[in-house]
Fold this sequence. Notes:
By secondary structure, the chain is an alpha/beta fold. It has a single domain, classed as 3-Layer(aba) Sandwich (Rossmann fold), CATH 3.40.50.1360. The protein has 7 helices and 10 strands. The protein starts with a strand and ends in a 6-residue tail after the last strand. The site of fructose -6-phosphate has 14 residues, from loops.
Amino acid sequence: MNIQRFTDGRALSQDLARRMLAAIDRQPGLVLGLPTGRTPLPLYAALREQTPAAGTDWSAVRTFNLDEFVGLGASDRESYRAYMERELFAAVGVNPAHVGFLDGRAADPDAECGRYEEAIAAAGGIDLMILGIGANGHIGFNEPATGLHARTHRARLQPGTRAANAALFGGDISRVPEEALSMGMATILRARSVILMATGAGKAAAVDAMIRGPITTMLPASFLQLHPDVTVMVDLAASPR
Ligand code: F6R
């Protein structure tokens, strides 16, 4: 893994935004895998800022987000779909027809997960996957467990993960759904290139174990050690020893 350290989340995000825009300029039909959460907020702000100056055209870019809460869809403001509209898609001009998203309100969640895998395959696979990491080492909503799912699936969220998402729900953890739909480990590992971002002291132990520890289902991000093209971008607080 290629580890890159930055003084703070803003510097990291500015650098990653520049890299992403350059990748889109080189390959206008780039297929992006995208995270939500706290960590990518300054990245999406940097992309909103830099896109007009760089003149980057997002109209042919395709996107697939990692996950969505079960029970929430595009019209729910707490959904990850609504978060992405607010933070990125509308401002940079992603074509709505090119947005891939799991529908948390799908009547048949298993069929919805299958549809998502097929949609990713039909787009030619994910070129660049941007990831965050949970303090417990989860990626997407692949939580530590004795076994992990390869494919997109319905996942039960751990209490700490629900607490970390409470801000989206007015700080009320009881309103955070208990389940989500999430890309699986193989879905993530099939991306051609992966960039994981981690900021803040709360992520330092997970980042350290991801890089140095054994590959274990109890720390799902450790499976990234098996991927040939992973860059880990950290601020000083999240920096491994
Ligand atoms: C969100 C996702 C999660 C987050 C992780 C870190 O789409 O896939 O794995 O990346 O929970 O969240 P933050 O950035 O809020 O600390």
